[in-house]
Specification:
Layout: H1 3-18, H2 35-55, H3 73-91, E1 96-97, E2 104-105, H4 108-128, H5 136-152, E3 168-172, E4 182-188, E5 192-197, E6 204-208, H6 210-217, E7 229-232, H7 234-243
Parallel strand pairs: 3-6
Antiparallel strand pairs: 1-2, 3-4, 4-5, 6-7
Protein name: Maleylpyruvate isomerase family protein
GO cellular component, one term: plasma membrane
Domain MDMPI C-terminal: 137-238
């Protein structure tokens, strides 16, 4: 998929969604945040990533140039992902730069920021009682990107997200996704996450639209939400969700 185009689209959706909303509206899925704080987090995050791409090194997000919206919040928010895309074009998409997972190609930040916008756009929508506006393709890629992050993260001292011998199967019910809408997830010795696309029998399986699966694995909606069907051992799913904060 075109991550750059999707990033701009998700950002525009967020900007449109919050344009006439009260900035003091609480965001229940981000406890303690208001819409104003969420918008600043998303816009500053894009500009922070752009700074990293241009320098190749870690940057303090509090010191990012243009990191505050000023009076034109809408223009600032809409311009933030464009700053990142311009930065990647300037340095080249394959140039290695700093990330919190170690050096990655500059273009890595486009997909990462896409799904930061995807999730926080959903946060804003849920706060306002609106539809999340995620296409199956974008939502499914968000699930895969989340699995990639978890699989790349070094195993800590505590237990991994799945106990040894247990597996998780996610199955998106949207038409047209094919294998891109199914995920088989396990761990090596209960520690390091490994996953692949495909169909199989898991210790626990969750079926639902890709957007709802994304919101569930990121703990934006409860797993007993009526839009999801859970088969097998629900305790395994509870363990996964409890141990996959990032």
């Amino acid at each position: 998929m075109d991550h750059s185009a999707a990033l701009l689209e998700q950002n525009a959706q967020l900007a449109t969604r919050v344009a006439d909303a009260d900035p003091a509206t609480p965001v229940p899925t981000c406890p303690g945040w208001t819409l104003q704080q969420l918008v600043r987090h998303v816009g500053r995050g894009d500009r922070w990533a752009a700074t990293i791409v241009r320098t190749g090194e870690f940057a303090d997000p509090r010191e990012v140039v243009g990191g505050k919206p000023g009076d034109d919040v809408d223009g600032w928010l809409r311009g933030s992902p464009r700053d990142l895309l311009d930065a990647v074009a300037e340095v080249g998409p394959d140039v290695p730069v700093w990330t919190f997972l170690g050096p990655r190609p500059a273009a890595w930040w486009i997909r990462r920021r896409l799904h930061e916008s995807t999730v926080h756009g959903a946060d804003a929508a849920l706060a306002l009682g609106a539809g999340v506006g995620l296409t199956p393709e974008v939502a499914a890629d968000g699930v895969s990107e989340w699995m990639d992050l978890l699989a790349t993260r070094a195993a800590g001292e505590g237990p991994g997200p799945l106990d040894p011998g247990t597996t998780l199967h996610l199955h998106a019910t949207d038409d047209g996704l094919g294998e891109a809408g199914e995920w088989m997830v396990a761990t090596d010795d209960g520690r390091t996450v490994r996953w692949e696309h495909g169909h199989g029998k898991g210790t626990v399986a969750v079926r639902g639209a890709a957007a709802d699966l994304l919101l569930a694995v990121l703990r934006r909606i409860p797993v007993d939400d009526g839009r999801l069907a859970v088969h097998g051992d629900p305790a395994v799913l509870g363990t996964w969700l409890e141990r996959t904060g990032f």
